Amino acid sequence: MTAAMEQWSWPPRFDDGYFPQADSRYWFPHRETMPQAEREAAILARLQAICAYAWDHAPFYRRKWDEAGFHPSHLKSLEDFEDKVPVIRKADLRAAQAAHPPFGDYLCVPDAEVFHVHGTSGTTGRPTAFAVSQGDWRAIANAHARIMWAMGMRPGDTICVAAIFSLYMGSWGALAGAERLGAKAFPFGAGAAGMSSRCAQWLDILKPAGFYGTPTYAIHLAETAIKDGLDPRRFGLKYMFFSGEPGASIPSIRERIEDLYAARVYDSGSMGEMTPWMHVGGSRETPGMLCWQDIVYTEVCDPQTHRRVPYGQRGTPVYTHLERMSQPMIRLESGDLTVWTNDPTPCGRTYPQLPMGIIGRVDDMITIRGENVYPSEIEAALCQLPGYGGEHRIFITREGTMDEMMISVELAPERWERGEDVRRAFHAQVAAHLHSMLGLRSVIEIVAPNTHPRTDFKAKRVIDDRAAFAEMLRRQEKVSS
């Protein structure tokens, strides 16, 4: 069985010189299209191997599993994996690294074998360090090249990586995949003042085939290009793939980016800890995300019980590495929210799908008068409206028994300039549309173009600040009086 799965071995080994036929839809034809039952049998064998490996090399897992009464010898089925293996959380990783700095006692290779160090920014607490061995870096590059091939990118394509090159894994993972794919890697980066204008100039000169960044930055970059007299549709982009925030799977946002650039848009990305983070990622024919189960085993679970939810239902992804040996994550709870399905795919790959991508964070949910709302749903609703200026802010306060929410929405420049009547009409349109889409009434403020700052990284549109909420309320009362 496993012999037929291309480059499937333990420990993982990859042929860096391998390429499929140029006209092949698949990087690994059998692995990507095999019957699910056959793949799941191979995944079970790999889970048995990686659990035994972690038991032998990581005191962190021995301690966790002893507390849960689990031993790798107990693992006889995927149901056993779900029932007997406890989830781990980011807080567990931070605690392990605090007690055993710098990489925690879940590092399964000698310190001397660490090849790359990445991690979280640490702006809201202790940062988490990601230690990646050289073998794991090659596994990441191979996995990402394989998924980028599924999106349509090919050797020789120029791929612009327009994301911050720092500890952030997104930019480095995209670069590693582009290099392994045999593409012309263009690591432009992001973050410096004036960089968006320069990026637009470079895109206009190079005409790259591929682009990586966040959805928010792609929209900001297009706005900057247009302001500078450039047409993003003339950049020649064919493939734009994104991670870092929800959006690329939301039809209204995806269609907006596609219209701005005349390019295909693909969603991808889970967590930095789970790199290769493209293990959930779309293909040229299949929108949303595929769960590439032979790279990272994904379960979508009830956030309380951590039992898999049926297909078609909403839950939080729980991830397990199948090709990582340095810091393998075994049942890492993401805290994200998604819906998974298991229908036949247009591309023929036999993986479960996340048709809506990552909806948001479980703890991002806002409860307004008994209705549960996610920030990504508000963004999707606004993107459906002609006249939306491209940015908004959600002000909430949690002083009462339920959250209260107000939304500040930019109006597009050409409409703002047409005067107060147009602004009032747009206000009414926004209020009615959000009520229709979300099932609740919100206090709406219409503001001038460029009122809210743009970003070349992950957008932060929810402001949980009583003072900011009160100030917006005062502005609304002044307008109403």
Quick rundown:
Helices cover 35% and strands 19% of the residues. The protein is α/β, with parallel strands linked by helices and 481 residues long.
Strand content: 15-25%
Strand order in the sheet with the most strands = 4-3-5-6-7
Give the mean pLDDT: 91
Biggest beta-sheet profile: 5 strands, parallel
**In angstroms, what separates the terminal alpha carbons?**
74 Å
What overall form do the CA principal axes indicate? globular
Structural class: alpha/beta
Provide the helix percentage: 25-40%
Q: If you compute it from the alpha carbons, what radius of gyration comes out, rounded to the nearest whole angstrom?
A: 23 Å
**Total beta-strand segments:** 21
Number of helices: 14
Flag low-confidence runs: none
Provide the fold topology.
Blueprint: H1 29-33, H2 36-57, H3 59-68, H4 78-84, H5 90-99, E1 114-119, E2 129-133, H6 134-151, E3 158-161, H7 169-181, E4 184-186, H8 195-206, E5 210-213, H9 215-227, E6 239-242, H10 251-261, E7 264-267, E8 280-281, E9 289-291, E10 296-301, E11 314-321, E12 332-333, E13 336-339, E14 353-354, E15 358-361, E16 366-368, E17 371-373, H11 375-383, E18 388-397, E19 404-411, H12 413-416, H13 420-438, E20 443-447, E21 462-464, H14 466-480
Parallel strand pairs: 3-4, 3-5, 5-6, 6-7, 18-21, 19-20
Antiparallel strand pairs: 1-2, 8-9, 9-14, 10-11, 11-12, 11-13, 13-15, 16-17, 18-19
Question: Your description of this structure?
Answer:
The structure is a single chain. Strand 3, helix 7 and strand 4 form a beta-alpha-beta unit. The protein is an alpha/beta fold. The protein contains 14 helices and 21 strands. The strands form six sheets. Strands 4-3-5-6-7 form a five-stranded parallel sheet, sandwiched between helices.
